[in-house]
Design a protein that fits this description.
- The protein is mainly β.
- The protein has 2 domains: 32-119, Immunoglobulins (Immunoglobulin-like, Sandwich); 125-355, TolB, C-terminal domain (Neuraminidase).
- 7% of the residues lie in helices and 51% in strands.
- The protein has helices at residues 2-22, 312-316; strands at 32-38, 44-45, 50-57, 63-70, 73-78, 82-87, 94-104, 109-119, 125-136, 143-149, 152-157, 164-168, 175-180, 187-193, 196-201, 206-211, 217-222, 231-233, 238-240, 246-250, 257-262, 273-279, 282-287, 292-296, 303-308, 326-331, 338-342, 347-355.
- Strands 22-23-24-25-9-28-27-26 form an 8-stranded mixed β-sheet, with no helix packed on it.
- A hairpin with a 4-residue loop joins strand 15 and strand 16 (206-211).
Length: 357
């Protein structure tokens, strides 16, 4: 008898469970978008045209709309299940993200991502060099920045406990004026703009501003990137590198980044951009750990030329006085003479660039 009652209760509970489950509303499923880029290429060249096609699979319910974003900027909105967007000429180098946010009328969203990469449409010119003059350089200076202003030479140095900024005599290498940074800072690149010296630090995410005449520190600023490397200016903005392929353009009054561009040649990104120099509308950059420098179009990020300084390090090699990598490039604004040096180098060189055929 008890067994029959148990079976009856079990069947009843299962029946009630089925009824109750059947009464639960079904969970709305996310819409799924498919993104395709035509033509399909591993990467695209600057100036190429592409078409981004979007197809949304709406599994149940109605689609409210789909939003297309490129680099987090809203491009277009459509209520159709299939739509497209054409870019007649790609004009930004580097890697770019595509995002489609599809939303149903019940509020359920689905997000799909895709990416594309744009390389330069020009092959960089190739340059070598010849040494025109050799000047002394202080071997204890771990060079991070080199500047010429009003026919005077300036340098910034790195390493904790040894970082600072200097004005020095070209012919003797003697320091004429200096400012030693606090020991916990690792100094990086400098630039001179509006009678001020702007200086970066390596990992402190902090920059400093000095009066050009007195070297007194008059201001400081912070930046969001984890590291500071090279610094220059184009007459309107400070231009900063952080060891990647990115150039950060900074408002010198607010210290806010107003734009970023990526530096690319015809094959891909050019990383480890270090010490910078701006001259006659073009930007020069040392490439860290190499004997190379590049000339960049600062409007687009295209690499215009590559400069090979092989040979200088081997000439300087002395096992008793170790040296570090090439770093420090400056161009005299009045006569166009180029000067280069390196970290702990005993010499600073005036060089003439020789185009390779």
């Amino acid at each position: 008898m008890k067994f029959k009652i148990f079976l009856l209760l079990l069947v009843s509970s299962l029946f009630v469970g089925v009824i109750s489950c059947s009464n639960k509303p079904k969970k709305s499923r996310k819409p799924v978008a498919k993104i395709s880029i035509q033509p399909r290429n591993k990467h695209y060249e600057f100036g190429d045209s592409i078409r981004i096609a979007i197809s949304v699979k709406n599994k149940d319910g109605e689609l409210k709309d789909s939003k297309l974003y490129i680099d987090n900027k809203l491009i277009t909105t459509s209520s159709e299940l299939e739509f497209s967007h054409s870019i007649p000429a790609l004009n930004e180098l580097g890697k770019h993200s595509i995002k489609v946010l599809a939303t149903k009328t019940d509020g359920v969203e689905g997000v799909t991502f895709q990416a594309y990469e744009v390389v330069s449409d020009i092959i960089p010119e190739q340059y070598g060099y010849e040494v025109v003059n050799t000047y002394p350089h202080r071997v204890e200076h771990f060079t991070q920045g080199l500047e010429i202003h009003n026919n005077k030479f300036y340098e910034s140095t790195g390493e904790k406990g040894k970082s600072g900024i200097y004005q020095f005599d070209l012919n003797t290498g003697n320091v004429l004026k200096s400012f030693k940074m606090e020991d916990h800072y690792f100094g990086e690149g400098i630039t001179i703009f509006n009678a001020k010296i702007y200086q970066l630090t390596y990992k402190a995410q902090k920059g400093f501003v000095y009066d050009l005449n007195t070297f007194a520190r008059v201001d400081s600023f912070t930046y969001s990137t984890s590291e500071g490397w090279g610094l220059a200016h184009d007459g309107n903005h400070l231009i900063k590198t952080d060891g990647s392929e990115f150039l950060h353009f900074i408002d010198p009054k607010t210290y806010q980044v107003v734009k970023k561009i990526q530096v690319y040649d015809n094959k891909g990104p050019v990383k480890y951009l270090n010490e910078l120099e701006f001259y006659q509308g073009e930007l020069y950059a040392n490439i860290w750990t190499t004997n190379n420098a590049v000339k960049i179009d600062p409007k687009t990020g295209k690499v215009l030329a590559k400069i090979n300084f092989d040979g200088l390090l081997s000439v300087l090699y002395n096992p008793d006085k170790p040296i570090d990598v090439l770093n420090g490039i400056a161009i005299h604004p009045e006569n166009g003479k180029m000067y280069i040096t390196g970290k702990l180098w005993p010499h600073l060189y005036e060089v003439k660039l020789i185009k390779k055929e």
